User: Fold these one by one.
Assistant:
Number 1:
Amino acid sequence: MTRKRLSTLAVTTTLAAVGVGVIGTGAANAATNSGIAHSQDGTTPATSPHTAMIASASSGTTADDYLKATVDLTGTQFDLTKVPAGNMPTATITWKDGGTPQTVAIGMDGKPVTPLQHFTYDKVGSYNITLTLDDGVAADATSTTKKIDIVAPTPVAKAPVLAATVTPKTVTAGGAVTVSLTGSSVDMSTDATKAVTTISWGDKTADTVLTGDPAKLTAADIAKLTHTYATAATYHLTVDLVDSNKVKATQVAYDVVVSAKGAVVVNRAAGSDRYATGLIISQHAWADNSKAATDTAHRQQAKAVVLATGNAFPDALAGVPLAKKAQGPLLLTDGMATTTNPDVLKEIQRILPTKDTTIFVLGGEKAISAGIKAELEAKGYTVVRLAGADRFGTALAIAQDPRAMNNPTHVILARGDEGTNHNGFADALAAGPYAANVFGGGNSAVVLSNNTMLDPATKAYVQSKLHVGDQNVAAIGGQAVTAVNSIPGADGLFVGAKGATRYETAAMVASRFTKPGTVGVATGLKFADALTGGAYMASVGGPLLLTDPSALSDFTSAELSMLKANVQEADIFGGTAAVSDDAGNAVAKLLNVATIGKF
């Protein structure tokens, strides 16, 4: 049997060298003819002038590649002197019985151009791999078969991950600290229900022991994450996580400084404008670059900065819990300028090293210009822009981006539209510290409603968090409660805080903090001071109360009275135009403080 002859063998082998293989009717018949010389051990029998060889057949060994097979055809060789002039030598592989042949390109030397051939199976099993050589002469056709076993690897569990934080790290005797386990996890190939998290508070009280997946804490578990220190001292707090295979995560440890109760203080953070107020707050909280270990005021080392425009509120509303999680201040700058406010840039450089740190800019280029981002990058910083098509998309980006909130289990919805007087932000301001420290054990995200409505993406995201038996969603404010209730089946699956006014709603949120040692007060009618102040309150584990600028609101006064037994410090954010002397003095009077100090 022969094929249509070409003019020369040179033409034939040139075509083959570029991978052209033709399996005509004659060749197919030759491959299945009982006269084909065939071997079952991967080598060719001696009756053919050509050598078909499968030197080896193997598959991957990991979960990612165990279905991927490789054969080595080293040793396979056409004897071109025995190929009739004009015939085209062809080689094919079938990877399983009845499979479609795969052509193997043959070079001008009669060998496979690529000895290694690859194939991906769709499931585990035993397969026969057959290599067939054909030069157009039935008597010369030869094949060989090698068996391969595709076996799924035994899962190798990854070590558990422990991502524990404690807030605050300094407290007065009788005050409370809270541990957050957000970001902790155990490998799903282990029995997550048998994982054990142990918190040793360092004060000779009983350890807190939680059994189960640290990423799926119950309300009862979350309640156990708050601890009160009775006596002034420095306590070494440790957190350990062990999975069901007895594999331990790297221990996390903190020194908690507990000071004796002194005189209660009321301080005011007031700069010449919103930008300056934000800088005062940052300077109070964050140590000079790389000097936190020797900072006498126990200020922390910043690991990030969250930068938002001071011109409008929408993109910054979801930034408070991000500032807490990323460990840095929320600063404001004129986002329409081409460069960062010089004093703000100076503060960033004071607190933030360029190595292993991040500056998050919130919103698109209309919020924070491309020039500002480029300037910060030129200074050596890693800059991450978190932005959506609008304010609602930006909040979702902050919630979902792995570099930001990383899609936490718990989410808070608050109103984010302009409102009647461009002040639809109040509930979200109160929600920030609550998301950062209390709801879901802390590090929850904030997303926004358009008054009582949800855009499709936000609705889908909130809906994905609603689960029977869990309350992973909180709605802060009447509009947000209505928005969540618009999702079919949401009733009873979320936590709501709905006051008659923004001040009552903020007071309701504050009441959910456990023995806070520090409380904040800001105007409920302007956003800027409450944003930077709210990020500070998130960092120290306290609530943010809102007030009418002219006089301390009744609900705010009542909540301060409820909290005062443990409060050692009240911080007023903004000057007297934001929170009047009358309102500030009312705070001081409630706490039996004679004089308001400087923050």
Number 2:
Amino acid sequence: MYKPFTKATFLLLFSAASLTACKKDNDKEKSRKDLLTEKEWKYVEYGRDTDNDGILDKEEVKIEACEVDDTFKFNTDGTLVSHDNTARCTSGDEAETYNWAFQKNETEIVLSSGRLIKIKTLTESTFECTSEMLDGSSTTKIITIFKH
């Protein structure tokens, strides 16, 4: 009787499949700095968290049409360049540069303008953060979501 696969053949194929499915030892998870500085970020949405639930509700989104194409590039040298691209909101400078640094185990970013940004999510494609803004006599939480 003809057997197309013997035990030895099966074990050889199984071993080869197992070895190719293993993750390489040199595949390392990207650092938070790598994730932040790899590409430019664009607004998806931002707004004031008026009900203070940590979620940006539809009625809280305040992004303007002229801001949709704005980009933000965190550089490895500690600079952040924000570009007010084609759809300009103001007649001011097209680009502004700030210094930035991680703090608190890379869960926060502090800008040279004094703004403190708390990182909620940072992946290869999404950067969600919160910051606070003085709104008259009270403080309002701002939620911002960026994508590549």
